[in-house]
Specification:
Length: 430
């Protein structure tokens, strides 16, 4: 089996190109509108500082600020822009874009730890949708609503750490056709290995057995999440979570019920995801010495990574062209999808199809794929060669046309050291 990833939380996340209708008045307005409609977030980041003083349409400026704040992990900067858009510019936005901005605002409030406000904002949107759309179309908003309301009286998470580099041991263990990275995590005096997963978008994901063993406090059930299907988990809390000398106060946990089909092939205690990583700011995966390092002073670098639905996407180069891939260290092996095959048909031409198994929350499925013997890319400032990379023979799905798969644990292992920086949103390897 290639991959088991049981913790995908799908949120209704606004993509950029919705077709802005505001009349452009200056060249800067025209260009900023083009950038917003194109979905080119890196290009928007590069050009916005030059354009902003000449933009005459306030709505365009607020849209740019909200997208850059969310995408480049500055939720506190996105918040006032989103508030202003919804307060003053709904008529210009139109109904569809207004709803998208309201959804994005609800998620942003959750990321800021403003739980009660997030729950209320998402709940208002759910009331609009629940009688007109199937649950699968808006369950991400239900996720925000139920998490927000259940944690309304819980303080926002906070990190305590010494002003020095913190080091913890690294494990790299075989799972099916690939490997998982893990690190020791202490909760309520119990130490277990948690999978290191940049693709885990909210909280920690743990098994029901683990939650009972360490005494997590369950505060809600019926929290919808998505993997192979849409299902439900419980929500639990603890006073703190400890990774070495890092102490993360008021974490929350998504508690997965037993799944005999998945558990037979892949058993796990917990997954530590992006909440802690964003709070820490930077982690160095040091394959050379077998440790994770959390530097006290994050390094400097130019962004090549952004967040979509709280999951990082990285800009790489393949065959001389830019390509965006999900950066998912919880994926046991990098894979590509129909978007890649669509953009680079010559890369997969003539390759024999075979069956492969994908698993996650809700079960395991069988899919058709081909295997690239070598996948040569430029990423994290280095030339990288990944071997035996599967390309799923599915149709390209929504999102950016540039996005075409996932960089997993084998990509991380291809470096002696890989720095993952959430402060300035980049990865760098050596």
């Amino acid at each position: 089996m290639k991959r088991l990833k049981p913790w995908s939380v799908l949120l209704l996340f606004v993509m950029l190109g919705w077709g802005l209708r505001a009349p452009a008045q200056t060249p800067a307005d025209v260009r900023l509108g083009e950038l917003l409609n194109s979905g080119e977030l890196f290009q928007l980041r590069d050009e916005y500082p030059r354009l902003r003083d000449s933009v005459s349409i306030r709505m365009l400026d607020l849209l740019a600020r909200s997208q850059l704040g969310v995408g480049f992990n500055r939720p506190e900067e996105a918040a006032p822009a989103l508030d202003s858009l919804l307060r003053f510019h709904q008529e210009e936005l139109g109904a569809e874009a207004t709803f998208s901005m309201a959804s994005l605002r609800a998620m942003n409030l959750l990321n800021l730890g403003l739980y009660a406000a997030a729950g209320a904002a998402a709940g208002d949107l759910v009331l609009v949708l629940e009688h007109s759309l199937p649950f699968e179309s808006y369950f991400g908003l239900v996720f925000v609503e139920r998490i927000g309301k259940a944690l309304a009286d819980v303080p926002a998470p906070g990190l305590e750490r010494p002003h020095r580099t913190v080091t913890v041991p690294l494990k790299y263990e075989a799972v099916g056709r690939g490997h998982h990275y893990s690190m020791p995590v202490e909760v309520n005096g119990h130490v277990h290995d948690f999978i290191f997963d940049t693709g885990c978008s909210f909280g920690c994901f743990v098994s029901e057995r683990y939650a009972e063993e360490v005494g997590l406090k369950v505060v809600a059930d019926s929290i919808p999440v998505s993997g192979m299907t849409v299902g439900f988990v419980k929500l639990a809390t603890a006073d703190s979570l400890r990774v070495g000398e890092l102490v993360y106060r008021h974490p929350y946990f998504l508690v997965a019920p037993p799944d005999p089909e998945v558990d037979a092939e892949f058993a796990f205690d917990g997954v530590i995801g992006c909440d802690l990583l964003r709070a820490v700011g930077e982690v160095v995966v040091d394959n050379e010495t077998g440790v994770f390092r959390f530097p006290a002073e994050p390094s400097e670098g130019e962004p090549d990574m952004y967040l979509s639905g709280n999951i990082p996407h990285v800009r790489i180069e393949y065959a001389g062209s830019p390509l965006e891939l999900i950066f998912d260290t919880g994926n046991v092996k990098s894979d590509l999808d129909g978007g890649f095959a669509q953009r680079f048909p010559e890369a997969v031409a003539g390759l024999a199809r075979h069956k492969t198994r994908h698993g996650g929350f809700g079960g395991i499925g069988e899919f058709e794929a081909v295997t690239l013997p070598e996948f040569r890319i430029r990423a994290a400032g280095r030339d990288v060669v990944l071997h035996d990379t599967e390309v799923l023979c599915n149709e390209a799905e929504g999102g950016s046309l540039l996005s075409a798969g996932s960089l997993g644990a084998d990509f991380v292992r291809s470096f002696r050291q890989l720095t993952i920086n959430y402060r300035q949103m980049f990865i760098r390897g050596r």
